[in-house]
């Protein structure tokens, strides 16, 4: 996989959501995790973070948006269901990115959206759980940067390179 990424949430308030998102970030190989203005009770996140991600990736709890610091060259990518956001399947992920999701019952703040280099949306009819949204973004990044070959043209069919070799024989 090329580059690196981190993922975080603004104003997250449910410890189980935070723990699940952190565990998923660890599973997908995130370099760091961060929160902006998280509710104090999210410190209980370890209850759902069975991989103990705190032991495996850096965690940065920023009290305010002004405190948010990212590595030089790391693009902030907002994940928000807005009309002008790029649909995730059409998005070219930066090699160095920090993805930020909104709170459970609301959207990313206008101040945070203004700091984003990119805003993407998951093409769903309505907002989904923050942990699931994070997993989908990380999975899409893995597909985009993971070096996987193109999918077969037909369901269950051979990979495209095999199809080309078959065409050349006939």
UniProtKB/TrEMBL annotation:
GO terms of molecular function: RNA binding; RNA methyltransferase activity
Top-rank taxon, per record: Bacteria
Protein keywords: Methyltransferase, S-adenosyl-L-methionine, Transferase
SUPFAM superfamilies, per database record: alpha/beta knot (SSF75217)
Domain tRNA/rRNA methyltransferase SpoU type, chain residue ranges per copy: 9-139
Gene3D superfamilies on file: 3.40.1280.10
Family matches, as Pfam families: SpoU_methylase
Protein name as catalogued: tRNA guanosine-2'-O-methyltransferase
Source taxonomy: Bacteria, Pseudomonadati, Pseudomonadota, Alphaproteobacteria, Caulobacterales
């Amino acid at each position: 996989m090329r580059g690196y990424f981190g993922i975080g949430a603004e104003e997250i308030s449910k410890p189980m959501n935070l723990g699940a998102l952190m565990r998923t970030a660890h599973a997908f190989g995130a370099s760091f995790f961060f929160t902006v203005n998280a509710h104090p009770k999210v410190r209980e996140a370890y209850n759902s973070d069975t991989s103990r991600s705190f032991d495996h990736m850096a965690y940065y709890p920023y009290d305010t948006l002004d405190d948010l610091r990212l590595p030089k060259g790391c693009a902030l990518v907002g994940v928000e269901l807005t009309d002008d956001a790029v649909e995730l399947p059409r998005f070219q992920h930066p090699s160095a990115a920090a993805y930020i999701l909104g709170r459970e019952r609301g959207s990313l703040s206008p101040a945070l959206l203004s700091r984003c280099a990119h805003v993407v949306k998951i093409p769903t009819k309505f907002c989904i759980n923050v942990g699931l949204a994070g997993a989908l973004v990380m999975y899409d990044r893995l597909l985009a940067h993971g070096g996987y070959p193109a999918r077969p043209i037909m369901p269950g069919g051979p990979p495209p390179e095999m199809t080309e070799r078959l065409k050349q024989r006939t």
